[in-house]
Hints:
Elements (H helix, E strand, L loop, with lengths): L1 E10 L3 H8 L2 H5 L5 E8 L2 E10 L2 E15 L4 E9 L5 E12 L5 E11 L8 H23 L3 H11 L23 E2 L1 H23 L2
Parallel strand pairs: 3-8
Antiparallel strand pairs: 1-7, 2-3, 3-4, 4-5, 5-6, 6-7
Amino acid sequence: MAIEIQEKFEIEAPTDRVWQFISTPELVVGCLPGASLAEVVDERNFLGRVKIKLGAVTAAYKGKIHFEDVDAERYMLVMMGEGKDPSGGTAKARITVQLSELESGATEMSTEATIDLTGKVMQVGAGMIKGVSHQLFQKFAKTAKERLEQEPAEASASASDEAVPSDTSAAPAVPATAANDDDEALSVLPLLLSTLGAAIRNFFSRLFGGSKN
Length: 213
């Protein structure tokens, strides 16, 4: 089942700096709980994994990401990802990221994604997954903003500690990171409860709001 997701947020940082960040997988993965980068195959292909806990159910996707289009002049990045879970579930995604420079000097990041999931994760339903995806994007946005809105010198020092050389085509593959344990895995249950609570509030708001007419 394909799920369409659209998100955007603003970052108080120059567009060039945000572009460098978003086009460096090592930095992006650091903002995604439960995700890890296993290997940089070349400058456009990467291997990684993400572990998600859904109550008592755990899905551990292992797969690859391919940068299909990298347009530095237009600040646009298109990537394709696919992974498999040992239980047989699959995940495929096409993600487009567009950066826009604002008059204030800040940057707007717009993301459009089409995600196709199979397996036990789909038991919660497409609507709930879309709501959870929004919550996860908010977590990513919060961490990315915190890192990018640092003073340039501080941000550069932080990036140098985390990133491999920018010339990934010439650099050796990064060592595989340690597999996420249960505490590091992305726990979806609190996000599900938050999303479910919001859905219930919206339902009763529409119900009683409509009854006044």
